[in-house]
Amino acid sequence: MKIFASYSARSKNFLALSALLLAANLSASAAVVDLGTAASATPYDRYLTPVKQVFNNIHTEGVTLDRVNALMRQGRAFRYAHTEPYVPALPQDTAARHCGDCKDKALWLMDQLGDQNVRFVIGKLDRGSNVSHAWLLWEHDGQWWILDCTMLAHAIPAERASANEYVPLYSFSKNSAFRHTDKAGLVADTAAAKTTKSGV
């Protein structure tokens, strides 16, 4: 009985240690945020003049998470309306109409944030979707956040998104463009050929 008890205790310790190691590995995997690799050109460049204009007017950083969430709630309340399939509306037009699609709302939010630690993202809300989606990635205190006021009223940590949701294809910062492959696989390569189905 003592031998069995000793073996049982060792087995429980081994299982507990294995569970801890597995949890640590899963946490480490979840914490990886796909920030892409630098791209000299993207299929969307011709449509993003309004995005570049907003970036050119952003020169600060340090907006608070409370401010972000307040703006998210405001943008979430805007009515959804999809008109122009590729070019985002100017932020002042979206604000005046109190409506817009995902790219319009994302650009409005970026303009309101005025924080240069942000990226304008084009990708898929769900990995298998045939329609593109736009949102923001925002870096704050060393952590990346997903800002999507089309679907959400608050920011969510980017590492919490699964491999099948908020799949970035391309993203754009103040001075660079990025191509994403870690989550999207070959989807980014086919995006240009499917722009007729794009919601962006």
Kindly provide the name of the CATH class of the largest domain. Answer: Alpha Beta
Overall geometry comes to globular
Per CATH, which architecture of the largest domain? Roll
The CA-CA distance between the termini, in Å, is 68 Å
Q: Structural class from helices and strands? A: alpha+beta
What is the chain-wise order of helices and strands? Answer: HEHHEHEHEEEEEEH
CATH topology of the largest domain: C8orf32 fold
Strand order of the largest sheet: 1-9-8-4-5-6-7
Number of helices: 6
Strand proportion, as a percent range, falls in 15-25%
Unreliable runs: 1-31, 183-198
Q: Residue-averaged pLDDT, rounded?
A: 81
**Rg calculated over all Cα atoms:** 21 Å
Secondary structure: helix percent:
25-40%
Integer count of domains = 2
* DSSP summary, beta strand count: 9
Largest sheet: 7 strands, antiparallel
Structure description:
The N and C termini lie far apart (68 Å). The chain folds into two domains: 1-30; 35-197, C8orf32 fold (Roll). The protein is globular, with a radius of gyration of 21 Å. The longest helix is centred in the first third of the chain and has 29 residues, at 2-30. A hairpin with a 4-residue loop joins strand 8 and strand 9 (177-179). It is 36% helix and 20% strand. It is α+β, with helices and mostly antiparallel strands. It has helices spanning 2-30, 49-56, 65-76, 91-97, 102-113, 187-191; strands spanning 37-38, 79-80, 99-100, 118-126, 133-140, 143-147, 156-157, 165-172, 177-179. Residues 1-31 and 183-198 have low confidence and may be disordered. The protein contains six helices and nine strands; from the N terminus they run H-E-H-H-E-H-E-H-E-E-E-E-E-E-H. Helix 3 (65-76) packs antiparallel against helix 5 (102-113) and helix 4 crosses helix 5 (102-113).
